[in-house]
Each structure stands twice: as C-alpha cells, then as structure tokens.
Amino acid sequence: DAKTTQPNSMESNEEEPVHLPCNHSTISGTDYIHWYRQLPSQGPEYVIHGLTSNVNNRMASLAIAEDRKSSTLILHRATLRDAAVYYCILPSGNTGKLIFGQGTTLQVKP
Amino acid sequence: KAGVTQTPRYLIKTRGQQVTLSCSPISGHRSVSWYQQTPGQGLQFLFEYFSETQRNKGNFPGRFSGRQFSNSRSEMNVSTLELGDSALYLCASNPYGSSYNEQFFGPGTRLTVL
Q1: Per-residue pLDDT reduced to its tens digit, B29-46
Q2: Residue B1: which residues within 8 A CB-CB, separation 6 or more?
Q3: Hey, are the CB atoms on B99 and A32 less than 8 Å from each other?
C-alpha cells in the first residue's frame, strides 16, 4: 500500500470547520483514498472515500488535489463528538486489507 | 441491518493458554479482516479471509491463526499466549473484499494476558 503522511494532532473549536490534511505522494493511479476515524473506546468507522473527484457525504467532504498527491478531509462544523483519531488510508488492489498509520488526533474545544 | 459483532467483548487469560475470538460479519459480506490494536504499535493488520480462504496475512507469528466458515463468520486463535498479546482485537467486514468498498468494524474484543 502507498504510504500516507498526516500531522500527529490538530485542534479545532466547536462549530468551526476543520481541514485534516494527508500527503500521499506515491499514490498509484488506481488507489482509492479512504478516511476512517476512531472514537475513544470504539472500533474505527468509515468516513468517506474517493478516487479523483471531490466527494461529499453526510459526515464530511473529501477534497482531492488534481495530481492526487494529497487530500483533505473537511468537517464542516466540528462538534465535540468529532474528537477522534482520523486515518487516511490508501488500500490497493482487490483486497479488504487496510494499513493504518498513526493518524491525526483531533481535539475539539468547546 | 445488524452490524459486525464480536464475542466475547472482554477476556482475561494467563500466559501459555490459548484463546479463540469470534466475529460475525454483516449479513452478505464475504470478507472478514482481523486487526490488533496496542498503544505501542497502533492498529496492525493480522489477516483477511474471503469466501473461506485466507487472502492476505500480516507480519505476525504462526501462533496467530484464523478461519472463516461457509456463513462468513470468522474465528481467530492465538496459541501459547504471551504478555505482549494483550490488545484490542478488531474485526472488519466488507461485501466483496475490494478496496473500493468501505470496511465495517466491530467493537472489538479486549484481551488481557496475565
């Protein structure tokens, strides 16, 4: 799997937008970009994924750079419940295998 | 639709014992993956099963094994437990075992080895 680089931690204020960056300069043309998050004492949960175009769902938006070497997960209005570790993952091939890095720990302040 | 379930949720064993953990995927999902999470190493991939066959394996010793049944339920077994095996064991299911699809994680089994 291609390697990803994320900041170790970020802080946000409640109800403000949060932009979580991820660099993946060795991404291949067929690698999807997945984001998962893990809330305290829970298993990871899927957030969003995309290939080339920007994607939106009820949880977040995913902005993908034109060269696909980086992407940004956007939480439009952070809540205290969004405090979690966010993982950017590039699974490859016909597989369910995910390689987790250290992720970004997001702290949301009231 | 019911989510991924894992049993038991908590387990305490002593060194040298063996343990079996169970995972029931979402109905219709054919791929089940297992992960180990520790404070020091984070989330690490153990193995993936698809249609009863092991398709991928992580870098873990042979003491860690698994299997998948025809109904897609999966078990993982750890023999000769060591203190370092204390961890949260998570399983995830995926409809087709494809990188296109999202993974659905269970709540995990917390294993403590004394």
Answers
A1: 999 999 999 998 999 999
A2: B26, B27
A3: yes
